[in-house]
TrEMBL record, chain A:
Entry's family note: Belongs to the 3-oxoacid CoA-transferase subunit B family.
A Pfam family hit: CoA_trans
Protein's name in the database: CoA transferase subunit B
UniProtKB keywords: Transferase
GO MF, one annotated term: CoA-transferase activity
């Protein structure tokens, strides 16, 4: 079975290290915050200028001056820091954020990512995505493996305009966890009940399949 | 105005000198920390052909979105737009030129503009449509693109508190682009929720030192929330 959005978030959360600074993009990446394991300390970075983002506020805590990068009202945890946008992107571009999780339309075997514009459709802008992919050493891209029509989104070469070139190393899809290196996707894990053949059929870019591909371990 | 009294008491005085065709840099992220009354004054002045530099362009009927109603903006430089139908309509009809700029690059362009740095190299946007036509240089084996600084004829800024010297403090994440905008205007106007006496702000806690600020005005703010997300007890 393909992973649900929640299960994808759950699997990504397993990659979060104790004591790390993490930026979570909009969509599935945002859900990752709900699955950070107990007993570890993580600082969430929100690129509008908050390090140490907390949960949504209670109704009586809502403050128009306290929002996240998705423009949602949030809180700050004890130990948080607030700063301006140049400082925020200095952290991002300077490689100080340990892990970035973001969504994509397409990725390819050379680590290129397309996530911000579909020609012919309305272009809203890249926001902070180009800075995030250019700055982070460690990025996990979350996306569905293929379109609803069964067209692979893991390609030999991205067809859509890029968000960044050669910057993605790991991809978690609803079917598999993969690493990108040496011009190929390397299959690391498969979603429970999903066959290597299914993954192979839906991966357009070169795919390296080891002898043994373990199933992802997800809590029930 | 004598000495260091930068306080003005009318919005007409706050925006005096704004002319057609000028570049205005505005602080704010979404609707958070936007100079809402200074924007309204620009609407009242009915100046046109403006180049507006801001992360976003407000929403229909609020924030920078109100400047679209009478087609006052000719060029918009922003990282994320399209939260308003009017913007979309004017962009698609070609009435409004839009220069999409990555958020961190936009912040750094303002910072550089205010800091006397004409341009800088960044890896952001290399290999993408944003990098097309821009000078590329390699440092330590990695390619970077040259991005130019932005300066404004006016910078309009929203802050929490200021004194008559123009020393400014922002509140929470309403800081965002405001301190950067403040440095990059030939004339920088700050509207605040509270005017305080000199000495009330701890010098070490001042976010924008008064040297960047030309005019300060006390305002009343709606502070509209774009996405109210809450949890239940």
């Amino acid at each position: 079975m393909a992973l649900t959005r929640e299960q994808m978030a759950q699997r990504v959360a397993q990659e979060i290290q104790d004591g790390s600074y993490v930026n979570l993009g909009i969509g599935i990446p945002t859900l990752v915050a709900n699955y950070i394991p107990d007993g570890i300390e993580v600082m969430l970075q929100s690129e509008n200028g908050l390090l140490g983002m907390g949960r949504y506020p209670y109704e009586d805590e809502v403050d128009a001056d306290m929002i996240n990068a998705g423009k949602e009202t949030v809180t700050a945890i004890d130990g948080a820091a607030i700063f301006d946008s140049a400082e925020s992107f200095a952290m991002i571009r300077g490689g100080h954020v340990d892990l970035t999780v973001l969504g994509a339309f397409e990725v390819d075997v050379n680590g290129n990512i397309a996530s911000w514009m579909i020609p012919g459709k309305l272009i809203k802008g890249m926001g902070g995505a180009m800075d995030l992919v250019a700055g982070a050493e460690n990025i996990i891209c979350t996306m569905t493996h293929a379109s609803k029509h069964g067209e692979s989104k893991l390609l030999s070469q991205c067809e859509l305009p890029l968000t960044g070139a050669g910057c993605i190393r790991r991809v978690l899809t609803d079917l598999a966890f993969l690493e990108i290196k040496d011009g190929a996707f390397h299959l690391l894990e498969r979603a429970p009940g999903v066959s290597v053949e299914d993954i192979s059929r839906l991966t357009a870019g070169k795919l390296i399949i080891p002898d043994h591909v373990p199933e992802m371990q997800l809590d029930a | 105005m004598a000495g260091f009294n930068k306080v003005v008491t009318s919005y007409a005085d706050a925006m005096a000198g704004l002319k057609d065709g000028m570049t205005v840099i505005a602080g704010g992220f979404g609707l958070c920390g936007i100079p809402e009354n200074l924007i309204q004054e620009i609407k009242r002045l009915a100046v046109t052909d403006l180049t507006v530099v801001s992360n976003n362009c407000g929403v229909d009927g609020f924030g920078l979105g109100v400047l679209l109603e009478d087609r006052q903006i000719k060029t918009m430089i922003a990282s994320y737009v399209g939260e308003n139908a009017l913007f979309e309509q004017q962009m698609l009809s070609g009435e409004l030129e839009v220069i999409l700029t990555p958020q961190g690059t936009l912040a750094e362009k303002m910072r550089a503009g205010g800091a006397g740095i004409p341009a800088f190299f960044t890896a952001t946007g290399y290999g993408t449509p944003i990098g097309e036509g821009k000078e590329v240089r390699e440092f330590d084996g990695r390619p970077y693109i040259l991005e130019e600084a932005i300066k404004g004829d006016f910078a309009i800024v929203k802050a929490w508190k200021a004194d008559r010297y123009g020393n400014v403090v922002y509140r929470h994440t309403a800081r965002n682009f405001n301190p950067l905008a403040a440095t990059a205007g030939k004339i920088t106007v700050v509207e605040v929720e509270e005017l305080v006496e000199p000495g009330e702000l701890d010098p070490a806690d001042v976010h924008t030192p008064g040297i960047y600020v030309d005019r300060v005005i006390l305002g009343k703010f709606e502070k509209r929330i774009e996405k109210r997300t809450v949890r239940t007890r």
